[in-house]
Amino acid sequence: MNGSRNLPNTINIMERPGESKPWYQYKTNFLAEGTIQRGVRFKQQYADTLNRAEQQSLVCLNQSFILGILGVETGYGSNKGSFITRDALATLGFGYPRRAQYFQDELGALIAWSYKDGVPTNSIVGSYAGAVGYPQFMPSNVSKFGVDYDGNGHVDLRNSAVDAIGSIANYLAQHGWQRDQPIAFLARYTGNNPDSIIAKDLTQPVPYGSLKNLGISPLNPIVKIDDLDLVNIIQLEDNNGPIYYITYPNFQVITTYNRSRMYATALWLLGTEIVSR
């Protein structure tokens, strides 16, 4: 830890309000044509690896979610962050009381990772909060879910897109991804009390039949949902007012990566668009 510097700007960023933008503004950050085109090029460049990740995953994870995460997190590696991870975690671990223990633990994980791989801690850079590499894994997740997918003997999420693809697939599979299950459907709401249907906790889905009786249904009449399917309802603010999604447990799995519902929706839509091209 010799030479570690205090980075007060990391605390300033942490103290900023969360996502205050409505959905119709938030989504433009990630669903722009330029981002989609970068994703298409990435898909073409790593087609064999993406296909392998799909086929080898025990849960048959669709590559669209890998592409969505990589696009939203780092623009397919174009913006992995410029903060020295050691310094960011030390600053937050000892200068940000609200989450000090979390960041101290991540600092410990970084040191262990650095020692194991023989990588100097001052050479690892990432986000202001200590996330690193293509997928922006926190250091503890590098050791838990990182995969040496290119077979060169070590996990390198900073420089190997192949390792990043395999590691994201492993992360989602280990967090409960359900094989051949939907993510979400746009919904129509005909009731007048949306608070009664909006999920407060995505880990507690309810039978669709109980929500249907309150005025929720798929926007596309072709979509059929069994009354016993366990789902949640989320609401986002679009240009012309609120929109609703019926979400399945796999949507909640995405929110373990980032708890924001807008984040999960954005990466789902981004990945789906890229795969369609």
Overall, the morphology is: globular
Question: How many β-strand runs?
Answer: 7
User: Rounded to an integer, what's the Rg over CA atoms?
Assistant: 20 Å
* Structural class category: alpha+beta
**Largest sheet data:** 5 strands, antiparallel
Strand content: 5-15%
The N- and C-terminal alpha carbons lie at a distance of 47 Å
Q: Could you report the average pLDDT, rounded to the nearest whole number?
A: 93
| Strands ordered across the widest β-sheet | 4-6-7-3-5
Helix and strand sequence: HHHHHEHHEHHEEHEEEHH
Uncertain runs are: none
Helix share, percent: 40-55%
Protein name: Membrane-bound lytic murein transglycosylase B
GO biological process, one term: peptidoglycan catabolic process
Domain Transglycosylase SLT: 7-271
GO molecular function, one term: peptidoglycan lytic transglycosylase activity
Provide structural commentary.
With 277 residues, the chain is α+β, with helices and mostly antiparallel strands. It has a domain at 184-247. The chain is 45% helix and 11% strand. The model has no long low-confidence stretch (mean pLDDT 93). This is Membrane-bound lytic murein transglycosylase B.
